[in-house]
Design a protein that fits this description.
The protein is an alpha+beta fold. It is built from two helices and eight strands.
Amino acid sequence: MPFLKLSGLRAPGMAAAAAVALAACSGGGGSSNDSLPLIRASLSIKNVSQGGRCDGIRVRMTPKELIGPANKYANNRMMVAEVAMTGPTDEGGAPMCNGTGQTLPMAPGNWEFSAPLASGSAQCQRHIKADGDLMIQFIDGIDGCSGPPPEAAAPETGTEVPAAVEEPAAG
């Protein structure tokens, strides 16, 4: 019966080793970027109905330039979000499908969004950051999506605003 005595002694040792391994993996207090916000963009789509149906639309998000640190759970690679569509509803004589959804957490930076709409593929680039405009709206027949493009969203550094010219008071 030496096998039973030996296995009985191994169980507490194995449990202790597993506990130490788990503590080492978790790092105790977490990593430094855990406190950074999880950034999710909101997706809104208005599409013309195809044959009276409103099928879900897959929005593709591709990072073009990552900027700054991100939460460790933020995605930094191409991903796809399925937006469920409802309808069709009569909007000004056109049968329209509508849908909303959210992206998975995204790393901050410039991202390209694209969606296949009835009139063709729509795409745009947006600067994604925690305190920025996170609404991505595709409307069939309108190029791009809502909000400013990355160039307008990320102003250049070092640019100066000219001082106001004072006019002499009429006297």
